[in-house]
């Protein structure tokens, strides 16, 4: 069924809680509905949203917003049956509709005792966007579990699919985000390869410490999910309580020379033994936490009109009053970028998509 409306209020459809409308709004609940939509005729621009948890609407949307309510979670192949030679004995392939809340899928997998997405528990948004964004947390990215992404190509008006290699996944990046085809493919459903084999991934952040003293063989997807949800609650604002889009900036990946300049600036302030947090990537480039840079510039917890830098995690800009205007969020963003650039010479780039 296709549900069309005009000047639809999007306040509850974006986690920043920007009070904006979509001039033309279309919601559909079956993949077949997409064929009924004449994409050539739709008022432009056209934007397909999920849960709106990585978006910052800077104004009312003058074109068409689409939203999927395709909602199913279905085991399509179980390696234990031995019937499909392409599926490993421990593997379980699960097809998930684009409109499924991604965390509902994580909860389902944990309940079924299936491994693979437990570390991604608690990330807001829907399954379709998880494959666009290559969401990641606690050492796991969506690409590690995605097998195939099924789409509707709005240019050719046909159904197509991308195997994981064709999705060209990178850090919060995919083929679907490339400027030449962005917006062309609507994700209809995603096939994830989960596993019955216990595979706890604890090598990230404080995860191993959280299970200290526990026999690793006693861990389950459910116990890891619960722990991760607890850690996330401590660090990140709950969207229903305080609006945000999670990490506002990407962690900069810089060359060794730029990193040395940052170390010099930090040691001039904190002393010669000061260690700048960083992570050396396989290609020799260095990832520096943007949160550290923002905190070093004194932004942690600071307010600017209705917007603020979250006091528990400076990578997050929040709609502090619940009444923040987009201009206040963008103004704060610009001031943070300018001060990080002035102090360290590094330019931060937003992870959040400005609409
Ligand atoms: C409190 C908080 C914590 C967060 N923590 C994390 C985290 O730990 N890790 C992480 O990676 N992200 C995190 N995020 C960001 C966000 O949850 C992810 O980017 C998520 O994938 C966005 O999903 P969404 O459904 O809300 O997509 P939206 O924000 O609505 O859209 C994101 C992009 O996907 C496109 N899109 C959406 N649905 C479809 C579709 N069906 N077909 C084609 N394109 C589509 C949109 O056009 C847009 O380009 C966090 C956000 C918040 C608010």
Give a verbal description of the structure:
There is one protein chain. With 355 residues, the protein is of the alpha+beta class. 23% of the residues lie in helices and 26% in strands. It is built from eight helices and 20 strands. Helix 2 runs antiparallel to helix 5. The chain has three domains: 67 residues, Uridine Diphospho-n-acetylenolpyruvylglucosamine Reductase, domain 2; 163 residues, Uridine Diphospho-n-acetylenolpyruvylglucosamine Reductase, domain 3; 112 residues, Alpha-Beta Complex (Uridine Diphospho-n-acetylenolpyruvylglucosamine Reductase, domain 1), CATH 3.90.78.10. The protein has a five-stranded antiparallel sheet with strand order 6-7-12-10-11, with helices on one face. The two termini are 27 Å apart. The longest helix is centred in the last third of the chain and has 19 residues. The structure holds flavin-adenine dinucleotide. The site of flavin-adenine dinucleotide has 34 residues, from strand 3, helix 3, strand 8, strand 12 and strand 13.
């Amino acid at each position: 069924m296709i549900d069309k409306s005009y000047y639809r209020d999007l306040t509850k459809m974006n986690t920043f809680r920007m009070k904006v409308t979509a001039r033309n709004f279309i919601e559909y609940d079956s993949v077949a509905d997409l064929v009924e939509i004449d994409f050539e005729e739709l008022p432009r621009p056209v934007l397909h949203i999920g849960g709106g948890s990585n978006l910052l609407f800077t104004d009312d949307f003058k074109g068409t917003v689409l939203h999927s309510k395709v909602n199913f979670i279905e085991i399509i192949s179980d390696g234990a049956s031995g019937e499909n030679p392409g599926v490993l004995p421990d593997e379980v392939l699960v097809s998930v509709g684009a409109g499924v809340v991604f965390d509902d899928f994580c909860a389902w997998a944990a309940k079924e005792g299936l491994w693979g997405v437990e570390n991604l528990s608690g990330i807001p948004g829907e399954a379709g966007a998880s494959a666009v964004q290559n969401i990641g947390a606690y050492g796991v990215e969506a690409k590690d579990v995605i097998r195939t992404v099924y789409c509707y190509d709005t240019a050719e008006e046909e159904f197509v699919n991308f195997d994981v290699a064709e999705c060209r996944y990178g850090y919060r990046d995919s083929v679907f985000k490339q400027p030449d085809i962005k917006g062309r493919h609507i994700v209809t459903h995603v096939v994830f390869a989960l596993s019955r084999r216990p595979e706890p991934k604890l090598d990230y952040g404080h995860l191993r410490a959280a299970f200290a003293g526990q026999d690793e063989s006693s861990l389950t997807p459910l116990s890891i999910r619960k722990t991760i949800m607890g850690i996330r609650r401590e660090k990140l604002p709950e969207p229903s309580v305080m609006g945000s889009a999670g990490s506002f900036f990407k962690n900069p990946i810089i060359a060794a020379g730029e990193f040395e300049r940052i170390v010099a600036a930090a040691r001039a302030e904190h002393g010669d033994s000061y260690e700048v947090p960083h992570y050396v990537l396989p290609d020799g480039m260095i990832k520096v936490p943007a949160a550290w840079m923002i905190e070093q510039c004194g932004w942690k917890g600071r307010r600017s009109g209705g917007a603020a830098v979250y006091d528990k995690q400076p990578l997050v800009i929040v709609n502090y009053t619940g009444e923040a205007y987009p201009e206040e969020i963008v103004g704060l963003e610009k001031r943070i970028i300018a001060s990080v650039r002035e102090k360290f010479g590094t330019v931060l780039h937003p992870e959040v998509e400005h609409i």
